[in-house]
Amino acid sequence: MAGNLPKDTLSYISVRLNMKNLSQDIASFEREYKDIFPGNAFNYFFLDDYFNRQYQADQRFGNIFGLFTALAIFIACLGLLGLSSFVIKLRTTEIGVRKVLGASIPSLLILFSRDFLQDDAWR
Fold first, then answer.
1. For residues 16, 20, 21 and 23, what is the CA-based torsion angle, rounded to 10 degrees?
2. Which residues contact 33 (CB under 8 A, 6 or more apart)?
3. Within 13 Å and on the Cβ side, how many CA atoms surround 96?
4. Per-residue model confidence as pLDDT tens digits over 68-121
């Protein structure tokens, strides 16, 4: 029945080996393989190494994605800092008048923070 299968169908053989006698098991399996398939080369690999290589690209992508996410958050924070300093610069006289009338720094911070946190559509 194996003679009717396409040539690429039987390209890998999966074998479970005992880890205690790994080198002896691999050597005995190689001998058996060469007895059955005398002209073919015996190459082997472990599935855990194969899977680790497959997922390394995903891990690198995750690291790069995290780096760009942090960069985007940093740029957004710089934008908020620039916007708040611009608004404070425009309202310098209001701040001065409020300070003269006895406003505390925390109350001024709450006043300006409320302007940034509230949406104009809900006013």
1. 80
2. 13, 40, 42
3. 5
4. 999 999 999 999 889 888 888 998 998 899 999 999 999 988 888 887 777 664
> Is pLDDT larger for residue 119 or for residue 19?
19
Locate 12 and state its tokens. 């890998």
Helices (H), strands (E): how many in the chain? 4, 0
Q: Who's near 99: CB < 8 A, 6+ residues apart?
A: 108
Extents of the domains making up the chain = 91-123
Whole-number Cα distances in Å, 117 to 10, 33, 81: 64, 71, 14
pTM of the model: 0.54
Contact 30, 40 (CB under 8 A): no
pLDDT recorded at residue 60: 92
